[in-house]
Structure formats: C-alpha cells, structure tokens
Specification:
The chain is an alpha+beta fold. It has two domains: 14-100 and 329-459, no CATH class; 137-314, no CATH class. The chain is 54% helix and 16% strand. It has 16 helices and twelve strands. Strands 4-5-10-7-9-8 form a six-stranded mixed beta barrel. Helix 14 runs antiparallel to helix 15 (424-450). The longest helix has 44 residues, at 321-364. The chain is elongated. The protein starts with 19 loop residues before the first helix and ends with a helix.
Length: 461
Amino acid sequence: MPNRVSLESTSSEELNAGNAALLMKKWLSGEHFGEAPFISHLSRETEDSVQRLGGEVNYAGLLRSALVALLRNKLRSVLTVLGITIGIAAVICVVAIGKAGQARVEQQLNSLGDNFVWVEAGGRAVNGRRTGTHGTKTLVMGDAVAIKNQVSLIKSVSPNVDGTVQIIYGNQNWYTGYRGVSPEYFDIKRWYMDQGAAFTQDDVERSADVCVIGRTVRDQLFGVEDPIGKVMRVKDMPCKIVGTLLPKGLSVSGQDQDDTVLMPYTTAMKKIGGQTWLDDILCSATSQEAVKPAGQEAAAILRDRHHLRPEEEDDFNIRNPEDIIQAQLEASKTLTVLLIAIASISLIVGGIGIMNVMLVSVTERTREIGVRVAVGATEEAIQLQFLGESVMLSLVGGAAGVLGGVVGSYLVGQTLKWQMQMSVEAVVVAALFSVAVGVFFGYYPAQKASHLDPIEALRYE
C-alpha cells in the first residue's frame, strides 16, 4: 500500500524558488513520502515545464500545455466554445442581413430621383367636401416654367401627365400606365436607357408620336423580339418605339416601375388625354439639403400664381417621398443595432461558460499547480497557462463562428434573393471580441490558479 504524501516536515524555506531543485530531488527520492504516485500521473507537458526552474517562462511549453489540456477533455471543450461560436456567427449574420436591407432601402431612395421635389395637383372643395389629389385643373405649363425660372434651388423641371391606356402590338395587348414628360424627366428620375435613345426636345415641340417603354411592357408585347423602331398602338395612336429603359423594379409602394410607357408631354396631352392642365410638376433640387427649401419656394410661387388668399388652402401638394425612405433607412439601422445587441448576449453567455470550465479545470488540476509552484514556477507562468487555455477556447470558437456566420449569411441571401454584403469590419471586430472574451472571463480562474498555496495544493485529494 503506497504511503500518502506527507509535507509536515517540509519547511517554508524549502518551498522557495532558491531551493526548488533540492526539494524536487527530495520528493523524487521519496525522502518526504514513501512513493510519489501522483508524479507519474502528471502530463508530459508538466514534466517539461518542471525542468524550467529559476522563474524562466517557457512560452512554447505553456502553449503546448494549454493545447494538451484542452484536447484531454474534447467534448467539454467543444461544448464550451459552442456559445462563442453561436454568438460570433449570429453577429456576422445580423450585420450582413442588416447591410443588405439597408442597401435595398438605399436603392429605393436612389430610384426616387435626383434630389426629387414633387409638386402634385391637389384637390378642391365641392359643397364642403374635398375631391382628393389630381382633383384640380389649376396646375399648368406656366407654373412649371415659373418654378424653373424663379426658384434658384431647382436645377431641372419636367411637366407630367399620366394615366392608364391599352397598348397593342400584333396579336399582343397590354394594359399599362403612360406618362407624358419632357426629356429632363430621365435625369430627374434617374432613368437610364437600355436600348435606343430617349426622345428629344424637338419631339416635344412637334408632339411627335414616339415613346420609350419599360422592361415589363417590352416583355409582355415583344418577348425576345427587338422593339426598337417598331410601331405599337397606344389607345388609337400609332407610336414608334425609340428606346427601352433599364429595369428599376418595385417602388416603395410596391408598384412595378417598369410597367410604363413614356412619351412627350405634348403628345400625351393632345393625343392621349385630351387635356390642357398638368397632373404633376417633377423637379430636381441642386442638393439634398435644398429639397425642402426648394419645395417651400415653389409653393410660395404657386400660391401667388393661383391667386390664393392667406386663409385659403393650397390647391396643390408638395410631396417629399424621400422622407419616408429616410425614415425606413433609419429604422433599418436601429433594428440592426438592436439585433446585434441581442446576438452579443450569447457571447457573454459563452464567456461565462469558459469561466466556469476554467474554474473546474483549476480545481481538477490543483495538485499539478502545486507541483509547478513548488519547483519554481512563477505566478506569471501559472497565470499565463490558464489564460492561454481560455484564449485558445475563445479563438477556436471565434474562428468557427466566423465560418458559420459567412456560410449562414450566404444561405440567407440565397433564400431571400438578397445581395448579401459581408462586412470585413464585422469579421475583424468579432475575432477581436472573441479574444477579449477569453481574456476577460479567463482572468479570474488564471488569477486563482496562480495564487494557490503550494502546500495546500499538494495536500489536495
């Protein structure tokens, strides 16, 4: 029956760093105890570190010791890093989804137009009841000219008349919306040509029977056939197609912007709508900051031209659709920050898991720590060893989390048909945060291990 370890005869002087080698010889020779069964159970890395006396820190040995200690309990290590992995992956996915959502909102904002100012024909009171938008006929071409000439914050103006119409080509027909505009409309609304060219000011002055069609109209009437130069019937008017538009997709309200036919406003007013007034005046301000002041100046000019008394309401509306999209963009950013905060909670939970496992490890390896301290290992070496294990756990979890976040973002993008944008900053911050979690939550267990009393540690069963 092996004798139990007896340290009563060991003096405090023998436990200092100067006599570490002498004490080790006594232990190994069995002078203080009949056998040293626990020495045989020390890991190989411990034996290597035991040979480093005099306070010198063997960083390679500490790293190897940390790695072997973690691999000794593979399942526990895997379960420990799972919290960090989930947290990092969740943060990266949330950031990628948030950026993709913001990109879609910014795309909608860009499709609205170039610093868009929208003057809309308003309603009128009939027996005390308002008729709603486009209920008046007071918005005329002279108003558009006055806004362009008198409002310095407006750089371009396009009259607008619109409605719905049946269009026919061959044996195909389609019910769509039409707009009568000026050539400036394409710049104001950021409409770019796919094929052909836009109509010109000369076409406007001649009320030419020409038009430009959107992608939806092209697909419905022409399919794969080239529509440029073809003549289709718009209501009862033959109209030559001179260009096609690049697709824009859905508007903020969900309307298909590509389901449209654009033509000179003079053609639409005289030959399609049969009207002398305008439905809208579409303007482009000189800058984003000038949008609202420009709208206010335009409103003042229109009230004066329409001879409205101070107590009378406007017979027009100044619309700012950009405000709606800006609000959506801010809401999207706020939601992204909120989701990141929620996802970060799992990182804290994972850090607590690391701390718990490291505390258990300190308890399990109390004897080993006692031997290290007794033979000359410094507090710094003990602390670095356990801190290294904690950081290694968080690094492995962080790496797995980054991989999971990238794969998860790709799968979400494929599912939602979104153009995902991976944030390099988010990946770097996530990696640094995982290291910070390892250091923060591993510091206390490492500190506890480094301050163990060697005599009490060697007596521990």
